[in-house]
Amino acid sequence: MNDATRGAGDRKGGWQRLTIAANRWLWRRSNDFAREHGWEIDRSAWGGRRYRDPRFEQRKKEILESPPQDEPISEPPPRKFSPGDGFPRKHPKIARAHGPIATAGLLWRWRSEITFAGVISLIAWQGPVAALLLAGAVLAGGAIPAVRRAAGRLVTRHRFQGLCLRTSMRTPEGRLPLIVHTQSIPGGTAMLIWCRSGMSPELFEDYIPEIRVACFVKEVTLHRHPRWAHLLTIELRRA
């Protein structure tokens, strides 16, 4: 009977020592880190730990004991230049670009319309029946939402480029910004703009009211690319 009792006690003591060793091994890094930084360590049941930096208590005590001070009233930051607020525009008038490069750019901007006009002319040349079939296909395509969205993006792009030609949203040589991509978004259209050398996103910010009117939208939001400074996304929302 005594031997059995001693065996049970040895087993209980061995399990306790194993638990303590495992507890120390699990919390060894955390405890060393806390002691290195002077933190207080509270041991809870089942191997838990709670660490506390005594400096926070000291700082809290200093704040509570210090007399209240009147915080200085900071002046609001200066207002950013925003057109329509009475500020005069100082952008110089820029003449339109001419030459083979400008002509190539004009043909590229109207590539969709030129292609469509060529296809219509080719089909109409085949006879009146083909022309009627083409007209029916165009009317049927107008009822498809994807086609309407594509037509809306095309109109928005041309309206924006026409505004650039009528204002100073161009390079000093008269080159237009490059519209890399247009995409439909909920309630409007988004355009990815490539700013040429001599342009900046601030130039487009100055003409937000004109962009809003030219593109038939209510809200214009500009987003700069987080990495490339020459890329700018313009969101045009109708509502």
Automatic annotation (TrEMBL):
Annotated region described as Disordered, given as residue ranges: 61-93
Protein name: Uncharacterized protein
Organism this protein belongs to: [Actinomadura] parvosata subsp. kistnae
